[in-house]
Amino acid sequence: MDTVIQTNQLTKTFKKEEVIKPLDFVVEKGEICALIGKNGAGKSTIFKMLAGQLIPTAGDIHLFGISGNDLTDAKKRMGFMIETPAFFPDFTAVQNLEYFRIQRGVVEKQRVQEVLQTVELAKQKKKRFRDYSMGMKQRLGIALSLLSSPDCLVLDEPINGLDAEGIREMRRLLLKLNQEKQITILISSHILTELQLLATRFVFIKNGEIVEDLSKAALDEKSRKQIQIKVDDTAKAAQILERKYADIRYKALPDQTITIQNHIEEAGDINRLFIENGLVVMEFRLEALNLEEFFLGLVGEDIQ
Amino acid sequence: MNYIKSEHYRLLRKPSLYVTSGICLLFQVMAALLLYFFNQFETDFPYATSRFLYSNVVSSGTLLVIIAMLFNLMLTGKDMSLIKQAISFGISRTTIFWTKFMLTLSYFLLLCIASLFLIIGLGENLLSQEENSIANFLIALSNMIPLVFAGFSIIHMMRMLKVATMYIIIFLLVLFTYSGELFWMIFRSINGLNELYKYGPDILLRNNLNHFMDQAAYVDYRCWITGIVLAFIALLIGTRKFTKQNID
Question: In which element (H, E) is residue A5 found?
Fold first, then answer.
């Protein structure tokens, strides 16, 4: 797999406070990587260092395998939207994008119209930026990041200020870009339920260092909380479990449900065991933590 | 090159460019018309001369620098926050620093040249002419050019380093109004440096005006030395610090 972003011992210090501790971090081609952390964890600082807005105190950044001072060509393959997108308030959407089209040397003039259509702002293209709603501003920010047809998008809080419909549209757009155009995405958001629907990898960051780095499959695995099984005879089920697993932790509930808190990875074996012992399994469910619950469990605090 | 083109696209669409330029030119026309009309109604009015009109320009060195600051502020003011987008795209801080400098300076120079033609046109056509007044005026202006250029470079450096406008004004006022006197007070007793005050921009501008008023303007090399040294220091500090600056 090709590496799109790689950091080696990337560090940032502000006034003697190390806000990003030596960070080794990789984003592979085709991934939708979610960077998750509470406010002040260092997400935006990492994004800004990748974008070149902040100069790292130590360490280095590789973009598409290129490192050092000459990241100009590599950056042309990237699209950044970090925090609130900045545009000229008195310019229309078209004028703003035209300015950046010229700046980025995008030859095709129609590219401005294309990206406006992609983010569904074509009808409001002649409106001045200052008259845009928050959601429209965010979408224009995405349009800008797509202007030079990047291979990788770095999006910091792209769904901030969007309504439910806008969030769904944004998710649809990002999934489409990832699946149809193979655009790699590095994203952060406080709306973790959205990230759960979007990302293929989850990197949890706390106090400037990575505390967990999981693929979607690994997260699903780790966030499983308990097995819930509805059987015709809970007493017999309990006996079977105790006989098979000495350390089993379970609860038999009055509604013929038995919940098991450990040996979760052996859910299939437990199911087979019950059936082989003549129990009727009416319902079998793996209850999982959602991303937010998992995150809170990891950092132990409210993400807001 | 693309960055220059995009900045050009932006500047040409900024109403403030036209408004500021228009106001500057309008003030000159009004000043000349005022002198002209006073002369029409008062026969002994002594100031309706081209030399007096030009002397207002020669005596406005500090004002010119403040106008340069307003011009820079108008053209780069709110747009500074967009630098981060250019940096994200891989445009170097050095390119950004110099492009913005060259473009705003070019537009400022265009305004200065337009003003020069306008003021000479007004002076020579509306007011009574005096011998050698244009030649004296142009020589006096040639002495002001490096000092205003230095002021412009300092303004650009401080703007790019996000120094608050109020501090820029204070610094410029001190430099262009009191620096010579300050140098004299500080260095008068130090052998070898006791002549340094003669290179203070305020002293140079004052001497330039005096010589112009005496119709004895001459090209003062000290203006060029001071201007070049100040501009060089400002741009060197600006480039070095801006390339290491976090753009947040």
Answer: strand A3-14
- pLDDT > 90 fraction of chain A, expressed in percent and rounded: 5
CATH number at A224-288: 3.30.70.100
Q: Is the pLDDT of residue A193 over 80?
A: no
Domain boundaries, given as residue ranges, for chain A: 3-220, 224-288
- For domain A3-220, the CATH class is alpha beta
CA-nearest residue of chain A to B88? A51
Q: Which residues contact A102 (CB under 8 A, 6 or more apart)?
A: B2, B5, B6, B9
The answer to whether the CB atoms of A73 and B90 lie below 8 A apart is yes
| Residue reference for tokens 């036209």 | B18
Q: Which of A13, A46, A53 to mutate: most B Cβ within 10 Å?
A: A53
Residue of B nearest to A77 (CA): B89
Contact B85 A100 (CB under 8 A): yes
- Per-residue model confidence as pLDDT tens digits over A27-46: 889 899 988 888 888 888 99
**pLDDT of A222 above 80:** no
Q: Over the stretch B43-61, which tens digit does the pLDDT of each residue have?
A: 777 777 777 878 888 888 8
Q: Tell me which chain B residues have a C-beta less than 8 angstroms from the C-beta of A99.
A: 6, 9-10
User: Token pair of A292, please?
Assistant: 């937010």
Nearest to B82 among A73, A75, A86 (CB): A86
Counting beta carbons within 10 angstroms of the beta carbon of residue B171, is it exposed (0 to 12), middle (13 to 18) or buried (19 or more)? Answer: middle
CB-based contact A86 B86, cutoff 8 Å? no
- Residues A263-285 have pLDDT tens digits of 877 888 888 999 999 989 998 88
- For chain B, what are the domain ranges? 2-243
Distances (CA, A) of A275 to A50, A233, B47, B165: 54, 12, 113, 79
Average pLDDT over residues B124-143: 82
For residues B11 and B75, the answer to whether their CB atoms sit within 8 Å is yes
Closest CA to A41 of A211, A293, A213: A211
ipTM: 0.72
Supply the pTM of this predicted model: 0.77
Cβ contact A90:A71 at 8 Å: no
